[in-house]
Design a protein that fits this description.
Layout: H1 2-16, H2 24-44, H3 54-75, H4 79-87, H5 93-142, H6 150-163, H7 168-180, H8 186-213, H9 220-244, H10 249-260, H11 266-273, H12 278-302
Helix pairs in contact: 1-8, 2-7, 2-8, 3-4, 3-5, 3-9, 3-10, 4-5, 4-11, 5-6, 5-10, 8-12, 9-10, 9-12, 10-12, 11-12
Amino acid sequence: MPVVLLIAAGYFAGRRGWVTAGAIKDLSNLIFLLLAPALLFRAMSAVRVQDLSLRPVAAYFIGAGLIFAATLVWRGFNRTAAVLALANTFSNTVMIGIALVALAFGPEGMVVLLTLISLHSLVLLTSATLVLELAVAREQAAHQAAERGAMVRTVGRALRNAVLHPVPLPILAGLLFAQTGWVMPEFVDKPIQLLGQAFSPVALVMVGITLALTRVGAHWRSALTQAVIKNVVHPLLVFCIGWLLGVRGLPLSVMVVAAALPIGANVFLFSQRYKTAEDVVTASVVVSTGLALVTLSVVMALVQFI
């Protein structure tokens, strides 16, 4: 409900004309270049690699990787396919997942979920960034005369842009900082914390604003397809892979629930930044969140028998 209400608040603001279409790009830059790096750096700055239990998380990422790859094969290697592949695999683990798992599974479940969250953005967003940058570089190369060594330069540029990027760079920086054992002074940590806390609500409000300024009805079939893949196919695949890897009980239950969470707002930011599939992704986030009221309830009931 908090996610739905925040999107609804943005929709109301957009319909009232408080935020116009011309401001969307500036708002997207604020979120992507300032709020997201603060959230990602601070989240990773407390992660100790040696404390992570990776087998349950591996089941999640193997399932996500298979769906991501299948989407690229089906839709072709381009920016739109990469963004939609991210929508099929990127869960709203923070805004919905933390509260849900804490209530349903308690502290033990939270340990499993936080292990996933510590790697969720690092793995999925960095992988998506690399694929997107390769797709962009390929599109640019297609408009230039073919020459020897063009592919080497294309790959090198894509790797550089994937690392020097507002999403993976703070994740890697935070992870490296965590391994030093240092503690940030409170006067530095507090502003970073406040910026990070602003990320989720502002991002969801922006989804609502864009929703108010676009016609979602024309994209409901595509949005429903994305939502079904994310809300139903992803958790089913994670369950099968986890079972094959020997994961049982609480860890498997938490991973399946995490996979069943609706599409995260970060996907919308990627579509905005790379200027592709904005309308479809906007509709998909909304439809996936609404559909999760049913699908997530069913998954929560079924995982009790794992």
